[in-house]
Amino acid sequence: MNEAFKALADPTRRQILNLLRERDLTAGEIADHFQISKPSISHHLNLLKQAGLVIDKRQGQTIVYSLHTTVMEDVLGWMFSIMGKKDKEEQT
């Protein structure tokens, strides 16, 4: 989970996740939304993959990226559990 939080700390990677929330995309399609180099986009995608937030699938000559929703659910579940504990502490 530490890798996921490191990946989420960067605004570009959060934007990539927002794009992938709408639909699966190739690296080129993702890069079209940014004014940074394609190697930089690849670097961000690799960090998201290492964190388990993104998965890739080869489709012929291209690689398509999509959200790995299971890991996202785990991260969100942990965050909500922390928030629930904090709310209970504030009520006492």
TrEMBL record:
Gene3D superfamilies per record: Winged helix-like DNA-binding domain superfamily/Winged helix DNA-binding domain
Pfam family, one: HTH_5
Tagged with keyword Ligase: no
Database matches in InterPro entries: ArsR-like_HTH, HTH_ArsR_DNA-bd_dom, HTH_MetalResp_TranReg, SdpR-like_repress, WH-like_DNA-bd_sf, WH_DNA-bd_sf
Keywords: DNA-binding, Transcription, Transcription regulation
One GO MF term attached to the UniProt entry: DNA-binding transcription factor activity
Domain called HTH arsR-type: residue spans: 1-87
Residues spanning the membrane: none
Keyword Transcription assigned: yes
Name under which the protein is recorded: ArsR family transcriptional regulator
Species of the source: Paenibacillus thalictri
